[in-house]
Specification:
The structure is a homodimer.
Chain A: H1 3-16, H2 23-34, E1 38-40, H3 41-50, H4 57-70, E2 73-79, E3 82-87, E4 94-98, E5 104-107, H5 110-123, E6 126-137
Parallel strand pairs in A: 4-6
Antiparallel strand pairs in A: 1-3, 2-3, 4-5
The first copy, chain A, binds a DNA duplex through residues 18-25, 41-42, 54-59, 61-62, 81-83.
Chain lengths: 142, 142
DNA sequence: ATGGTTGCAAAATGTTTGCAATGGC
DNA sequence: GCCATTGCAAACATTTTGCAACCAT
């Protein structure tokens, strides 16, 4: 999906909720779309400050919450008391996190998804999202 | 494993590291052993305060870090910016977390563990711990 | 006696919020 | 013009830390 289509999707979502499509929200979305992989909010704030885009930290946090609700970004990892997000355009995947260098490697495994569904059924649990994080030492750091 | 054995194990670990086995550390460990399931640090602090055990918040945090390093407790969940711990005596398991009532259900699935090992091998990644959290709505809340 | 440990309060970190001014629609 | 939104700073929540007094070994 291209950027314009996503932007429109966001605009529609916002309007449907009776909210407004402001220049700040647009800027934040654009910045997020520029990032390929994962990001932390504080990095996003810094990036925005560096580009002199007039958006405050509070607005970044508030917009991220809307985007999360909309499902365009996912809270993927909680590590060292920080939340790391990613844009959720790709197929679902999970993460290997190197405890030495902090690098994050993505993987996806259809089998694991299936097993999770099976388990949820067993417990009468209706899954919304999930997060599988494997912590360890990556190839480079070994 | 019984409490005394665990306590000894902790004592040995601490000494091996050139640290000291203090009454505060002992009290904290005892309190943790009294809890069956999961706990948040602040709850632990409250519990300790209520029992008039002379241990400060800072010491609870510091001791938890030692216990985590030792592998006796695991950071199991990061949810709403809180860390939830559990004692890691039982077999490894993962969690279903109800986003409505906050209840945590444990499950374990041998197959998932195996698949994770397989993936780590593929990536040359040496796993240390992992965390699988499935968020959704539990049976009761549906 | 030595050097790790404690409690305290202050600081650090990440995130949320109240409020007056602003700006979509 | 209405009402959501913004920026700011203050508030919050969780966790860490500097330091002087303390205590296990």
């Amino acid at each position: 999906m291209n950027k314009e289509a996503i932007k429109k999707q966001f605009k529609d979502f916002v309007k449907r909720k009776g909210l407004k499509f402001t220049s700040q929200r647009e800027s934040i979305l654009e910045e997020i779309l520029n990032v390929k992989g994962h990001f932390e909010i504080e990095d996003m704030v810094k990036r925005i400050k560096e580009k002199n885009i007039p958006v405050s930290r509070a607005t970044v946090y508030r917009t991220l919450n809307i985007l999360k609700e909309m499902g365009l970004v996912n809270e993927v990892i909680k590590y060292k008391n920080k939340t790391i997000y990613e844009i959720s355009l790709k197929q679902h995947h999970d993460h290997l996190i190197c405890t030495k260098c902090g690098s994050i490697i993505e993987f996806s495994e259809e089998e694991i998804e299936k097993l999770q569904d099976k388990i949820c059924k067993e417990y009468g649990f209706k899954p919304e999202t999930h997060r599988l994080e494997i912590f360890g030492i990556c190839k480079n750091c070994r």
